[in-house]
Structure formats: structure tokens, C-alpha cells
Amino acid sequence: MPADSTNFFEKIFDVVKQVPYGRVTSYGAIASFLGAARSARMVGWAMNGCPGDLPAHRVVNRVGLLSGKHHFEGTNLMQQLLENEGIEVDDNKIVDFKKYFWDPAKELDF
DNA sequence: AACGTGACACAGC
DNA sequence: AGCTGTGCCACGT
Over the range A30-68, which residues count as b (16 or more CB within 10 Å of their CB) and which as e? Predict the structure, then answer.
């Protein structure tokens, strides 16, 4: 079965959906995990076409900054969702990001 | 086909 | 994790 472009997107969605409650991951981690180490932008772009059932609020940039909050409804929804999961967020930024960071390449085993 | 844009990352200051 | 510049891939115009 050859790999379609769609497969890349599906993988991204699949990984994000598998992110455990109270955890977050980064675009770069996903990109690297999928073999597109330097193409984190593609991951972010993929989110642009996210199906909607995707917990995109658990996906942030490498410093834990809610770079995509602007794409959510309102202005604080993304932060509220994360805080609701027990993640400390301060000014659109995750506190102790490293502590909440969930690496698919380590935690997940493909 | 070229240029600009984007939910990023890394190297350099 | 603070700012700037460059590289990356895909898409819209």
C-alpha cells in the first residue's frame, strides 16, 4: 500500500487524537515523528484542514506557546481547554511545557 | 511559473 | 525562551 499525501495528514490527526489527557505535543515532534523533521509548517498547515474532532489545543509550538489560539473560537478557548485538563497556562503559554510535553516518538510506538 | 503567506524550527545575537 | 534571520513544505492568487 503506497503512502498517499493523505496518509501524512491522517497520521497527524491520529497522533494528536492519541495525545493523552493533560498532555501536549509540539508540531516539530509530530513532524519529526512522521519524517518531516524540518517541515513543522506542514503540520500546522494540516491543522488548518483538521476534521474538527481533533484536540488541536493540545498541539503547540516548541516553546509551549499557543500559536494557534487565534484559529480557535473567541480568544481564550484554547487556553481554557488546556487549563481544564489541568495544564497551567500563562499568557497563551504553557507553564513547565517540558513537564506536560508528550513525545509521540517516545511515548507512542509505531 | 513566480510570489506571498502560514497553527514552525533552528542557528545566531 | 527573548529577538532576528533563514530554511522548510504546501497552498492560493
Answer: bbbbbebeebbebbbebbeebeeebbbbbbbbeebebbb
